[in-house]
Amino acid sequence: MKPAMDAAAEESQEQSQEKRGCFECCIKCLGGVPYASLVATILCFSGVALFCGCGHVALTGTVTLLENHFSKVTSDHAVLTDVIQLMQYVIYGIASFFFLYGIILLAEGFYTTSAVKELHSEFKTTICGRCISGLFVFLTYILGVAWLGVFGFSAVPVYVFYNVWSTCAAMRSPVVNVTSVESICVDVRQFGIIPWNATPGKACGSTLGDICNTSEFYLSYHLYIVACAGAGATVIALLIYMMATTYNFAVLKFKSREDCCTKF
């Protein structure tokens, strides 16, 4: 009877040790997750998707508005149409590049986090690894500065559409004299979107009100806002990437010096 009890006790002890081992393994794996890089990757993917998707559709709607209401002669806005098409192709490239770059940065975050915390014996700091980490730090800083410019540029169409929308809202205001509505105009040529010789180039009164009520204007205006917000989210994601990659690179460099000192 006693040997049976001892065998049961040993079996329960082995089971508890296995559970403890699995728990410690899970904790160890969770400790190697680069949470900052993970959050930045999700934010970067979301921001780039919003910027590229909404920006592409908003540019198409802008061309439709210009052709139907502000520049009815094709040759007047031919250059603008070519620029918008080029920007749409650039958007495709941006989406593809940041999809790959985000995955690479996340993988690099897993590697450097494990090396910094020394969770796995096979993850050691090497000169090649430190050089790659330094390269990602440099590229991320460059991309962060570039996306600050993209964020500022994406605010320009929001400003233009807001001016048109605020003018329409002023026309609908009850304090506005009905006889003076036709004198309220919006001239898009002053924004440099189309040349000064474009016809008609401006919209006044009821025509302007009809433009503000179109689905193209309403959709493009809000899509530009979302695209601008997406660019801002991407800037925040790159800032998080900067902090995470810079910290990991600094710790790896410090550990390499520490290893060199312990060899002598």
List the SSEs and their pairings.
Elements: H1 2-31, H2 35-70, H3 78-117, H4 127-171, E1 185-187, E2 202-204, H5 205-212, H6 215-263
Antiparallel strand pairs: 1-2
Helix pairs in contact: 2-3, 2-6, 3-6, 4-5, 4-6
Describe the structure.
One of its GO terms (cellular component) is plasma membrane. Belongs to the myelin proteolipid protein family. It contains six helices and two strands, in the order H-H-H-H-E-E-H-H. The chain has helices at 2-31, 35-70, 78-117, 127-171, 205-212, 215-263; strands spanning 185-187, 202-204. Helix 2 (35-70) packs antiparallel against helix 6 (215-263) and helix 3 runs parallel beside helix 6.
**Category from helices, strands and their pairing:** mainly alpha
Average of pLDDT: 78
Shape: elongated
The main β sheet shows up as: 2 strands, antiparallel
Q: Secondary-structure element sequence?
A: HHHHEEHH
**Whole-number radius of gyration?**
29 Å
> How far is it from the N-terminal to the C-terminal residue, by CA?
61 Å
Number of strands: 2
Lateral strand order in the biggest sheet: 1-2
List unreliable stretches of 5+ residues. Answer: 5-9, 119-123
InterPro entries: Myelin_PLP, Myelin_PLP_CS
GO cellular component, one term: plasma membrane
Transmembrane segments: 38-59, 89-111, 132-162, 223-247
Keywords: Membrane, Transmembrane, Transmembrane helix
